[in-house]
Specification:
The protein is of the alpha+beta class and about 150 residues long. Helix content is about 55%, strand content about 15%. The protein is built from seven helices and five strands; from the N terminus they run αβααββααββαα. β4 and β5 form a beta hairpin. The longest helix has 28 residues. It starts with a helix and ends with a helix.
């Protein structure tokens, strides 16, 4: 629990300051927030991030190409790295995805379970769709491939 002294020592930075540090526009910073990569809180019209959250974003995206906001591969890699901390029990937060809300960081176990179940359903559907084509092409069945691992 934060004490009043701790709260006084928290440094908040706004979107413009983050954009200046990253040498990009405020719109790009907003995209990082919406993607769940940059934590924030909204106060009035302002989106504020702590120095610690900014540092976490920098560490999370280390070695990543953030220049293309449509780079889905980069986004998925960042989410994988972030969620690995949850898998290793180093973090209580997990990035979930829903069709209505997009990506979101949460600590709600039920929300995480729903997201994982949805991912499983999509993976099974993809395997079912390619199974027949694999048979026609004389390729190994996915189940055989999994067993070989």
């Amino acid at each position: 629990m934060l004490t009043p002294q701790d709260i006084q020592n928290i440094q908040l930075i706004d979107t413009e300051e983050i954009a200046k540090r990253l040498r990009c526009g405020a719109e790009r910073v907003g995209w990082y927030r919406k993607a769940g990569l940059l934590k924030y809180r909204k106060l009035g019209k302002h989106y504020l991030t702590t120095e610690a959250e900014y540092a976490e974003f920098i560490n999370l995206t280390s070695g990543m190409d953030l220049s293309n906001k449509l780079n889905e591969r980069m986004l998925r890699k960042c989410i994988q790295v972030f969620n690995q901390a949850y898998d290793n029990r180093n973090n209580r937060e997990y990035v979930v995805h829903s069709c209505t809300l997009g990506y979101k960081i949460t600590t709600d176990t039920e929300e995480i379970k729903r997201s994982i179940t949805d991912n499983d359903r999509r993976a099974i559907t993809m395997l079912q769709q390619t199974r027949k084509v694999r048979q026609l092409l004389g390729m190994k069945d996915q189940i055989s491939m999994i067993n070989d691992l």
